[in-house]
């Protein structure tokens, strides 16, 4: 994101210690039989994910419904208990932290949710909502809570005089700003944004995206932005993790990913996004994926994407492709990755089900 | 969508709206949800209505289907479907036209299908509502239609319930249900908004194919400009319950002549934008339909109103005036003023 | 699906077993001492003690329960080894009423059909009435039919059944003599007398219940009429009647079936007040009489039977869910 200094930010972002690092992260939800509540299976919502988030950068996590992106956001901050793996936040291993131990850690990282209608308590005033983090932490900000809250409201573009109003008196976009003010209260280093704009009207989305960008530049925040809208993700992220069925398929800086996707799934995903320019489609090859998403309770063997992949071969069913670096700063989990930018594919395999429009 | 015009297709529009007004009396006052909406649509063509929540696009589409309850909605103007005025026609006439002349596809296919009946039962019911058709024949048509919209094993799946289908398959079921009586007009209200992008691509493909085959008119209601650019022939932009701009899709995207349309396009991130491009949001909030601003309804959010002489924007409501070939806009700014103030990339190399 | 039925049936059996323990315990800890109650007027501590032994009340509680429970399943013999005093009580034996000198099972078997007739008739009446008026109210939401029906149902719902019953009795029977004094005959014996006797009890029971179902149906209909699939049904060009009944009412049926099943289950345990007022020899009246007489075996038996009705009704309701909602059936 960090638009003004994008070059230095991207280059410099990966140096030093990450604010957040997850390794081997797994989150399985048990499927229980209706009889005797025995566990008869598991939904592998997140299945072995490694991610790092560095200061002042935005990591986008993108994927379709059921890919585990929301679960990962919640597991990162221990709103859900991980099944396996470790989570390090600000240098501390928080994997085994109890709820009480997590309280001080909430100063390091906070969260913004998708639905600005249900994530704010309708019976609390805006002042009370935004002040909640101070109360939980037992902090008296300099100048008092009220002043701090009003400063926050002002900063996110709300009238500080509206301190005593209730969430119902605000529009969707304003409510999302309230959520942002609350997330910002303790000056965290990291904010996890779960679909921050998808519930908002188009003309309001840009307001919130710009606000997030401004706050990042001002406070040096790091973001993990979880979204299904590839245009928004592309716009806001420095680096992007593409997820499919609980696994990271590709991890890359934003520009390279969009310029030349290396994972077939990324390629299909990007090609499906309609371009808001008449005739824009003609310039792009479109890949229509056949079939439906397999059940995360029973993912395919080997590569989870192989059942819908036009490049799949026997090896893909037998061997799980590891997420390996294919070029500097770029990782792909595929046995047969797409050629890099400028590189010519020596096997011009024609994708089946492709419909170039 | 398709350039091929079958010889039988008439040139007169299949759907024509003339000064449609829909208002609802509420405790807070009269909500003018649609205020003087006019446009027309031919068979075989796709018209997209673009707008945000509260712009009146869904209200307009439901008025075309005659779905507003007569006692809560006050409707004036004309909605001509194949020459019949839906507004003044009897309830029985409109009912018999629904599903046969005009059909609708809704946003959320899960909640739009009845959870307690099989997909087959719901399709058969649609067939039998419009003629004496035996159950087994209706069933055969249902299976054929499900097969046509790309549902594998249609003969088996016809016995299944909506919750046993995936989101994309459910939307195919909705499409099959809408098309089973060969309507000439299909209204698709945000048909892909609830779906993932790869599924969206599949569904848009299905609609495109079917339109090529059946030559129905499609009225596409959406907020997604990408979907509009890829599927529509013509575009109607709505704001605050009225049409603020209408014209061919190329005109609208390359030469928007209403500041709202331009603002909408500039505020949407584009996959092909260079990194670091800053979005240009439209400031403020959409207006309340109970208490519309005087003058131009978009004025409180308009960045260009200072360029209009005598502060007309504050006092006068602009009319929908021609600004190009088949292109109308509701703005006091002249074409040359707009071209200078609001450049588009595709307009030339004038990008700032 | 079959697994679900079996599982649900199994859990019903477990519940019934648990219920029998609870009922047994409840009555064994009561201060009323059956040994004393069966002792008669000239009672001495020796006789009480003898009675206690004869009734097996000196044995440990577990053993007493075993005897009682075995009686239900396999029947039992009273006064065993006491010559002429010995008699058998065939299964299902719920005990022996010493004050009425009869097997409890026989007493209940006589009373149950009366209550079943009362409950069934009232049920048909209140469901027909409640559903119809509820649908009418919902379709006319906010207009006069709705307002009137809502008003009536609120008044009806707040009237206690003893008031309704007594008013009907006084007005139609005592004052206006439109109907004879109630005198129960089984329908197989005299259908006309049966109907004449039952009509007022039916109305009494159905009156308040119908009011509840009017309101419940209305709420359900108002909710489902706003669902997206109702809009779809209209968009298909279905007639409004089909939309209302086949789509909206069907979708809102689940809570109505739940309430109806439980209400019926409860009612089968006896409508105490209505049966008293209209002199119906059903479960409710038997319960009242046995309480007045402190006839513990009968009270225990009635409690067990009444609770069994409720548990079975619950089971039936769960089975009906599967018929109504495929999502339950196929889960």
**CATH level-4 homologous superfamily of the domain at 6-248 in chain A:** P-loop containing nucleotide triphosphate hydrolases
What is the alpha-carbon Rg of chain B in Å?
21 Å
Tell me the total number of β-strands of chain A: 12
Please tell me the total number of domains of chain B: 2
Number of separate helices of chain B: 13
- Please give the oligomerization state of what you see: heterotrimer
In total, the number of strands of chain B is 12
> How much of the sequence of chain A is in beta strands?
15-25%
- Which H/E pattern describes the elements of chain B? EEEHEEHEHHHHHEHEHEEHHHEEH
Most extensive interface: pair and counts? A-B, 48 and 49 residues
Kindly provide the name of the CATH class of the largest domain in chain B.
Answer: Alpha Beta
Widest β-sheet, arrangement of strands of chain A: 6-7-8-3-9-10-12-11
Spatial separation of the terminal alpha carbons of chain A:
32 Å
Please tell me what the overall shape of chain A is: globular
Low-confidence stretches of chain B: 1-10, 346-352
Detailed description of the structure:
The complex is a heterotrimer of chains A (357), B (352) and C (331). By secondary structure, chain A is α/β, with parallel strands linked by helices. Chain A has a domain at 6-248: P-loop containing nucleotide triphosphate hydrolases (Rossmann fold, 3-Layer(aba) Sandwich), CATH 3.40.50. Chain A has helices spanning 6-13, 69-76, 99-105, 126-137, 145-155, 172-184, 202-219, 230-236, 254-259, 264-272, 314-318, and strands spanning 20-32, 39-53, 58-62, 84-89, 92-93, 109-112, 190-194, 222-227, 239-244, 247-253, 324-327, 330-332. In chain A, 47% of the residues are buried. The model of chain A is unreliable at 1-13 and 345-357 (pLDDT under 50). Chain B has an 8-stranded mixed sheet, with helices on both faces. A 4-stranded antiparallel sheet of chain B has the order 2-1-4-5. Chain B has helices at 57-64, 91-97, 109-112, 119-128, 135-148, 154-157, 167-179, 197-214, 225-231, 249-254, 259-267, 312-315, 335-341, and strands at 15-26, 29-41, 46-50, 73-81, 84-85, 102-105, 185-189, 217-222, 234-239, 242-248, 321-324, 327-329. Chain B contains 13 helices and 12 strands. Chain C is mainly alpha-helical. Chain C has 2 domains: 16-93, no CATH class; 106-329, MetI-like (MetI-like fold, Orthogonal Bundle). In chain C, strands 1-2 form a two-stranded antiparallel sheet. In chain C, helix 5 (104-139) packs across helix 8 (191-225), helix 5 (104-139) packs parallel to helix 14 and helix 8 (191-225) packs across helix 10. The mean pLDDT of chain C is 88. Chain B binds chain C through residues 65, 67, 95-100, 103-104, 106, 108, 111-116, 118, 125-126, 129-130, 161, 163-164, 174, 177-178, and chain C through 227-229, 231-240, 242, 247, 250-251, 324-327, 330.
């Amino acid at each position: 994101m960090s638009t003004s200094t994008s070059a230095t930010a991207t280059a410099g972002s990966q140096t030093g210690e990450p604010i957040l690092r997850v390794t081997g992260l797994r989150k399985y939800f048990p499927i229980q039989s209706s009889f005797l509540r025995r566990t008869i299976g598991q939904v592998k919502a997140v299945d072995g994910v490694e991610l790092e988030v560095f200061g002042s950068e935005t990591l986008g996590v993108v994927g379709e419904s059921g890919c585990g992106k929301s679960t990962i956001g919640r597991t990162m901050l221990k709103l859900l208990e991980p099944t396996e793996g470790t989570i390090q936040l600000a240098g501390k291993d928080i994997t085994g932290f109890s709820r009480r131990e997590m309280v001080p850690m909430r100063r390091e990282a906070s969260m913004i949710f998708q639905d600005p209608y249900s994530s704010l308590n309708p019976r609390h005033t805006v002042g009370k909502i935004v002040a909640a983090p101070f109360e939980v932490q037992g902090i008296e900000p300099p100048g008092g809570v009220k002043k701090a809250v009003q400063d926050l409201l002002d900063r996110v573009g709300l009238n500080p005089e509206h301190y005593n109003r209730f969430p119902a008196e605000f529009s969707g976009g304003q409510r999302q700003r309230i959520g942002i003010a609350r997330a910002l209260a303790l000056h965290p280093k990291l904010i996890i944004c779960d679909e921050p704009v998808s519930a908002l009207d188009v003309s309001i989305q840009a307001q919130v995206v710009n606000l997030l960008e401004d706050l990042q530049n001002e406070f040096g925040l790091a973001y993990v932005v979880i979204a299904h809208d590839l245009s928004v993700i592309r716009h806001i992220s420095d680096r992007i993790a593409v997820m499919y069925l609980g696994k990271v398929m590709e991890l890359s800086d934003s520009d390279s990913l969009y310029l030349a996707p290396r994972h077939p799934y990324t390629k299909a995903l990007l090609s499906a996004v309609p371009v808001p320019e008449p005739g824009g489609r003609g310039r792009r090859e479109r890949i229509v994926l056949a079939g439906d998403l397999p059940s995360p309770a029973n993912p395919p063997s080997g590569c989870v994407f192989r059942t819908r992949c036009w490049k799949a071969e026997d090896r893909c069913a037998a061997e799980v492709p590891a997420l390996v670096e294919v070029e500097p700063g770029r990782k792909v989990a595929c046995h047969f990755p797409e050629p890099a930018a400028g590189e010519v594919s020596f096997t011009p395999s024609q994708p089946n089900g492709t419909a170039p429009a | 969508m398709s350039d091929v015009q079958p010889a039988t297709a008439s040139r007169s529009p299949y759907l024509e709206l003339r000064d449609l007004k829909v208002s609802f009396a509420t405790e807070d006052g009269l909500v003018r949800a649609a205020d003087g909406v006019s446009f027309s649509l031919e068979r075989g063509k796709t018209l997209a209505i673009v707008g945000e929540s509260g712009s009146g696009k869904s209200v307009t589409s439901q008025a075309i289907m005659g779905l507003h309850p007569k006692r809560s909605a006050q409707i004036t103007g004309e909605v001509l479907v194949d020459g019949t005025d839906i507004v003044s026609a009897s309830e029985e006439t409109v009912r018999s036209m629904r599903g046969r002349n005009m059909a609708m596809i809704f946003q959320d296919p899960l909640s739009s299908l009845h959870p307690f009946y099989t997909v087959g039962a719901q399709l058969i019911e649609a067939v039998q509502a419009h003629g004496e058709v035996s159950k087994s024949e209706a069933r055969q048509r249902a299976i054929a239609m499900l097969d046509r919209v790309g549902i594998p094993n249609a003969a088996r799946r016809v016995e299944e319930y909506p919750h046993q289908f995936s989101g994309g398959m459910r939307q195919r079921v909705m499409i099959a249900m809408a098309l089973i009586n060969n309507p000439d007009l299909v209204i698709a209200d945000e048909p892909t908004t609830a779906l993932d992008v790869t599924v969206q691509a599949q569904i848009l493909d299905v609609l495109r194919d079917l339109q090529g085959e059946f030559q129905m008119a499609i009225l596409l209601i959406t907020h997604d400009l990408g979907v509009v650019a890829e599927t529509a022939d013509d575009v109607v932009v709505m704001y605050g319950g009225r049409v603020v701009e209408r014209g061919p899709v190329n005109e609208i995207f390359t030469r928007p002549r209403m500041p709202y349309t331009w603002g909408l396009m500039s505020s949407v991130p584009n996959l092909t934008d260079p990194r670091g491009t800053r979005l240009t949001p439209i400031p403020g909030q959409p207006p309340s339909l109970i208490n519309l601003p005087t003058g131009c309804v978009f004025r409180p959010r308009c960045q260009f109103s200072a360029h209009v002489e005598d502060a007309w924007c504050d006092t006068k409501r602009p009319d929908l005036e021609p600004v190009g070939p088949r292109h109308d806009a509701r703005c006091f700014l002249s074409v040359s003023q707009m071209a200078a103030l609001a450049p588009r990339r595709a307009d030339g190399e004038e990008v700032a | 699906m079959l697994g679900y039925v079996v599982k649900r049936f199994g859990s019903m059996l477990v519940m019934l077993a648990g219920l029998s323990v609870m009922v047994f315990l409840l009555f064994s800890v009561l201060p009323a001492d059956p040994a004393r109650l069966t002792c008669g007027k000239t009672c001495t501590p020796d006789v009480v003690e003898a009675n206690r032994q004869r009734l097996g009340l000196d044995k440990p509680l577990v053993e007493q329960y075993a005897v009682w429970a075995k009686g239900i399943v396999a029947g039992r013999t009273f006064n065993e080894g006491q010559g002429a005093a010995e008699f058998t009580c065939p299964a299902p034996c719920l005990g022996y009423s010493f004050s009425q000198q009869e097997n409890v099972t026989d007493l209940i078997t006589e009373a149950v059909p009366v209550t079943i007739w009362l409950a069934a008739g009232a049920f048909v009446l209140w469901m027909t009435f409640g559903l119809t008026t509820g649908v009418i109210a919902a379709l006319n939401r906010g207009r006069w039919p709705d307002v009137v029906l809502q008003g009536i149902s609120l008044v009806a719902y707040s009237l206690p059944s003893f008031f309704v019953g007594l008013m009907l009795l006084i007005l139609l029977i005592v004052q206006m003599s439109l109907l004879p004094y109630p005198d129960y005959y089984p329908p197989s014996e005299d259908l006309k007398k049966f109907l004449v006797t039952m009509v007022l009890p039916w109305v009494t029971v159905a009156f308040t219940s119908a009011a509840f179902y009017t309101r419940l149906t209305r709420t359900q209909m108002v909710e489902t009429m706003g669902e997206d699939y109702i809009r779809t049904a209209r968009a298909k060009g279905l007639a409004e009647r089909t939309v209302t009944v086949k789509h909206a009412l069907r979708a809102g049926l689940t809570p109505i079936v739940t309430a109806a099943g439980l209400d019926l289950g409860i009612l089968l345990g006896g409508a105490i007040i209505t049966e008293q007022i209209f002199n119906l020899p059903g479960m409710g009246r038997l319960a009242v009489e046995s309480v007045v007489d402190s006839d513990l075996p009968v009270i225990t038996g009635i409690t067990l039977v009444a609770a069994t009705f409720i548990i079975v009704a619950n089971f039936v309701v769960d089975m009906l869910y599967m018929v109504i909602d495929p999502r339950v059936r196929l889960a």
